[in-house]
């Protein structure tokens, strides 16, 4: 791990890149939604099309199980990987998984989705785990899947490790050197940036996450070729450490809004549930489950709306102590309405 400036660090990671590849294999179209116009990677598109064509039906189903875009169970291990220094060597990571107590793996899986104020339940208490999962913000289908994975936990662990090995050997290892070169170029770019520039990059990549004035203990930036224009944020409260897996293309991504972006933003503001979420968050930051209770809607429903508002940057997650809350992004809302007004009232020259 290399120190950049202030509390910012960077690290090259084959393990996180492998997980990013697995997520992309199952969610290529979803990840491409945030790609700026004219900047799609045709070489990567062709590679994913080819890779999917040679994957077996069983492997595709396993990828959808562990790397679904609503639950991303495989990526919930991020903080464990960092805590145990298993981010670099894939074989060491696999051996770590093989030795990892199954309850510890499952305790990461059940934290998928939004953060909760409750502590992780006793993993030996089946009723407590079931209630924890059912009260989560995961969609119903993913809750049901997670319950099944928990009940058959030993098989779950074996399935996950087998999937890691298969994708690594068949797809990641052959391209490892090429991927490493892309990662190194991104790290070199990061190394030339000052603290304000890095904060700007984080704010652009994570419009839903407010980069606070008070510092996290450590912010680790890990470049990922397979994430391209997308990014992942994970926070470990015990070490007060943020990890961002950011697409290598985000370093050069434009930050300009176009009319389609403005229309999407205004459409979100026009939706009654999203409108009420923003009104509630204007009063005070809240957890997702608090919003669901206040607005009398289900967890999966509030999860869907929060996800959309976060992606658009209309709400942000913010830290209070070691807890993550949501609050409205008033500046973004005001700017959106002003830009829409300018578009609608523009006169022909």
TrEMBL record:
Pfam families in the cross-refs: HTH_5
Any one GO molecular-function label of the UniProt entry: DNA binding
Keyword tags: DNA-binding, Transcription, Transcription regulation
Superkingdom of source: Bacteria
SUPFAM superfamilies membership: Winged helix' DNA-binding domain
Occurrences of domain HTH arsR-type (ranges): 254-348
CDD domains, A to Z: HTH_ARSR
InterPro entries membership: ArsR-like_HTH (IPR011991), HTH_ArsR_DNA-bd_dom (IPR001845), HTH_MetalResp_TranReg (IPR051081), WH-like_DNA-bd_sf (IPR036388), WH_DNA-bd_sf (IPR036390)
Name of protein: Winged helix-turn-helix domain-containing protein
Originating species: Aliicoccus persicus
């Amino acid at each position: 791990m290399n120190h950049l400036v202030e509390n910012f660090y960077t690290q090259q990671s084959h393990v996180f890149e492998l997980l990013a590849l697995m997520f992309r294999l199952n969610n290529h179209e979803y990840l491409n939604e945030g790609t700026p116009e004219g900047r799609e990677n045709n070489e990567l598109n062709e590679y994913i099309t080819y890779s999917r064509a040679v994957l077996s039906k069983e492997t595709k189903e396993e990828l959808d199980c562990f790397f679904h875009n609503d639950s991303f169970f495989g990526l919930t291990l991020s903080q464990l990987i960092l805590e145990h220094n298993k981010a670099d060597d894939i074989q060491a990571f696999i051996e770590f998984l093989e030795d990892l107590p199954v309850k510890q793996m499952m305790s990461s899986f059940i934290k998928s989705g939004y953060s909760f104020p409750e502590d992780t339940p006793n993993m030996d208490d089946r009723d407590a785990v079931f209630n924890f999962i059912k009260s989560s913000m995961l969609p119903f289908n993913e809750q049901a899947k997670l319950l099944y994975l928990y009940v058959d936990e030993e098989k779950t662990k074996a399935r996950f490790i087998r999937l890691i090995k298969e994708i690594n050997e068949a797809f990641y290892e052959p391209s490892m050197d090429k991927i490493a070169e892309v990662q190194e170029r991104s790290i070199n770019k990061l190394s030339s940036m000052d603290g304000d520039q890095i904060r700007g990059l984080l704010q652009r990549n994570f419009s839903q996450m407010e980069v606070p004035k008070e510092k996290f203990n450590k912010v680790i930036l890990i470049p990922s070729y397979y994430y391209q224009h997308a990014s992942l944020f994970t926070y470990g409260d015990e070490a007060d450490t943020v990890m961002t897996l950011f697409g290598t293309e985000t370093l050069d991504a434009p930050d300009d809004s176009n009319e389609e972006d403005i229309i999407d933003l205004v459409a979100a503001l026009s939706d009654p549930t999203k409108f009420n979420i923003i009104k509630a968050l204007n009063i005070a930051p809240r957890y997702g489950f608090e919003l669901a209770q206040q607005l009398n809607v289900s967890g999966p429903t509030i999860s869907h709306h929060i996800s959309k508002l976060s992606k658009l940057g209309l709400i942000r997650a913010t830290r209070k102590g070691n807890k993550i809350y949501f609050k409205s992004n008033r500046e973004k809302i005001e700017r959106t309405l002003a830009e829409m007004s300018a578009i609608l009232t523009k006169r022909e020259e």
